[in-house]
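User: Structure tokens for this complex, please. No commentary.
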Amino acid sequence: MSNRTHERQNPAFYALITVLVLMSVGPIYLMLTTSLRLNVDVMSDASALLFVPTLQNYETVLCNVLWYEPAHVGYCDPTFGRALGNSLIIALISTGITLVVGCMAAYALVRFRFMGRGAMSLTTLMMRMVPPAVLLVPVFGIWTFQYHLDGTHAGIILVYVAMNLPFVIWILQSFIVQVPIQLEEAARIDGANALQVFFLVVLPVIKPGLAAASIFTFRIAWNEFLIANALLDRNSRTVPVTIVNSLTEYDIDWGVIMATGMLLAVPPIIFTFVASKQIITGMTAGAVKG
Amino acid sequence: MTSAGMKRMTPYMFLAPAAAIMAVGLLYPIGYMVYASFLDWNPSQLISEAEGVGLRNYASLLGDASFLESTAVTLKFSTIVVVTEMVVGVGLALLLDRNIRGVSVLRTIFILPMMIAPIVVGLMWRYMYHPSVGIFNQTLKGWGLEPVPWLSDADWALASIIIADIWQWTPFIFILALAALQSLPRSALEAARIDGASGWQQIVHIKLPLMMPVLVVTGLLRLIDSFKVLEVILVMTNGGPGLSTEILSLRIARTASEFRELGVAAAMSNYLLLILLALTVIMFVYNKVVDAREAAVRQAAEEA
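Assistant:
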């Protein structure tokens, strides 16, 4: 049982891995297959394995953004198509802003010694633990009565940027620390000013960190429900809000709702496969040193 | 002189946007909430019209049976979830820390559950727990067993949301533990092996103690995050049946939107924030202590 037998492992070991993979992918696979069935098939007791896959549920959900009119959709509900657009705009813009602002702050915290550094760094750490539920009451009050930003994209983007900044700063710090200081000094000797050093030398080196941070930020803005539900109105709603609103106690159209869920899940799944290495580095950055 | 002044201003210039956004979007709202927690305030009033009630919101919460039950449910949920995930996650990391092909593919598959929207995770599990068409009850029926009231019975419902959370977040612990294992000093493990330590002895006496700092931080991070879980439970049970799965976050949301008592919701948020603050401080202090001890060890080694 020594660790040197790298090549041949116990069969039980492979069995364990297979079980684990099935467990983590199984529910997602189940959601996919349900989204490809009509509700009558979902609710029938007949064999779960044999069915004719159909894209009808996706057509129902996306009816107002499709270039053709699906024959089976009697009344086209534009809610979801609109929400998808809102979600995309909100998630992309807030990710962009968070990233730019966050890496500038992280850079200042890592590379400069100045008054208020400790306070700023501690505040960032503390703010990381604030749950969205805690922000619900004050954000509702302030955004509605003082900022007058309720129901606007700008309002929710401000919340998401503020919510994500502490985390992004925290992650990026650990990447910036690893940038060799000689690189920056060389640039400074060549006559680059602080901004040039930052944008032309530091940013290109921490690209993996930026990738990780942007995925985490996008994921939160894309998935968030509670504050979006409180702030946004019918026209500016995001996808998670429409999903929860379409959930009723009885008589759920599982096919359609799973299609909606699939569409919401697809961007994060794609990111995971494209950038899993960066995601894992980002996740381990704070807790594991060295 | 001006150049020196410029230099002194540089860090503030880099920090200003972040500081401004966090002040407007985070610090001010939290201060606002602390203020609101001393008011009797409902959503149709301006905050300036709300009446100050001192500590009444806090005091009445302490005697409020449903709030106390929510707190108990939250603590129970978080404890069970974190302990199980730590044991399973670290256990799996120790088992799978081997040189096999395709480890990166495996890790990619394992992080999928936590990348997907909590709303969608809730949907998937609600479907799987469905009393008649859900896969669990279908399977039980196939084996000729009684169906289980996954989400409609109070005790089962709590167990069901715990299972869903374990599914979603065990990979997080697993991946951090694996990273910690792989960054252990090879020399210590080599020495133990030469001295004839068994696999089990290596784990108990070498690997676990060396991983401990990372594991403690991971556990605390997970504990803090477990207090933020809301959407999965909202979609699966909406806190029911009764109050059996109504965690604090959910209770805050309901107090604000359904009962329309913003002051009480704010006071509740403050209690939650205090718990999390305590945990964060513990994590912070622990990190400092570990760093200091490492520095001391290093210094002693250099002097020797």
